[in-house]
């Protein structure tokens, strides 16, 4: 029994070394806080530790971590029940006067705001497409969803968001 625990611990350590920076980057892009992102990263790996025995296909761990980190961070945001905006960015005199890096932050804040009411799967697909810059084929592979479903989710999201004033053609960051 002790050998099994050591093997599981070793496997978790290897997975942490391989994927912690990916999970942390995802969490940081959603939570906008370095400390909160590290806490969330630890939470996600604790969930992985509990889920590892039931994950038979180790090839899905990458997508499991992305999905779990996204869902975990959105749950944390829902608990906060607010979307915070950086006052310096919003008082800079409009999009033409905002430096590139701050424009990216603003875009991500607005996108997170627009994602709040959407279903988990739609949020996940939108995150992969607009936060991470994945192509639709890659999203299909990661999520296991069909290409037509991904197109449908992205099209519906873009239409409803555009009706509210968010235009993806003007600014796109991956």
How do the SSEs run, as a string of H and E?
HHHHHHHH
Measured distance between first and last alpha carbons: 45 Å
Task: Briefly note the structural class of the backbone.
Answer: mainly alpha
Question: Which geometry do the CA atoms define?
Answer: globular
Radius of gyration: 18 Å
Strand content: under 5%
Description of the molecule:
There is one protein chain. With 174 residues, the chain is mainly alpha-helical. The protein folds into two domains: 1-82, Orthogonal Bundle (Rna Polymerase Sigma Factor, Chain: A); 91-174, Winged helix-like DNA-binding domain superfamily/Winged helix DNA-binding domain (Arc Repressor Mutant, subunit A). 72% of the residues lie in helices and 0% in strands. The chain is built from eight helices and no strands. Helix 1 (2-31) packs antiparallel against helix 2, helix 1 crosses helix 3 and helix 6 (120-131) packs across helix 8 (147-163). The longest helix is centred in the first third of the chain and has 30 residues, at 2-31. It is globular, with a radius of gyration of 18 Å. Residues 82-98 and 170-174 have low confidence and may be disordered.
Provide a compact summary of the structure.
The chain is built from eight helices and no strands. It is an all-alpha fold. The protein folds into two domains: 1-82, Rna Polymerase Sigma Factor, Chain: A (Orthogonal Bundle), CATH 1.10.1740; 91-174, Winged helix-like DNA-binding domain superfamily/Winged helix DNA-binding domain (Arc Repressor Mutant, subunit A, Orthogonal Bundle), CATH 1.10.10.
């Amino acid at each position: 029994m002790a050998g099994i625990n050591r093997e599981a611990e070793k496997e978790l350590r290897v997975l942490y070394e391989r994927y912690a920076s990916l999970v942390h980057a995802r969490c940081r892009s959603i939570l906008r806080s370095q400390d909160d992102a590290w806490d969330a990263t630890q939470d996600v790996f604790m969930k992985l530790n509990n889920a590892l025995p039931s994950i038979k296909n180790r090839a899905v761990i990458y997508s499991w971590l992305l999905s779990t980190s996204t869902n975990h961070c959105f749950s944390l945001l829902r608990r906060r029940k607010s979307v915070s905006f950086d006052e310096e960015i919003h008082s800079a005199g409009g999009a033409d006067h905002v430096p590139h890096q701050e424009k990216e932050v603003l875009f991500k804040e607005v996108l997170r705001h627009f994602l709040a009411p959407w279903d988990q799967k739609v949020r996940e697909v939108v995150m992969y497409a607009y936060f991470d810059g994945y192509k639709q084929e890659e999203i299909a592979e990661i999520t296991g969803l069909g290409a037509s479903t991904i197109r449908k989710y992205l099209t519906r999201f873009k239409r409803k968001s555009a009706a509210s004033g968010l235009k993806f053609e003007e600014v796109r960051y991956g």
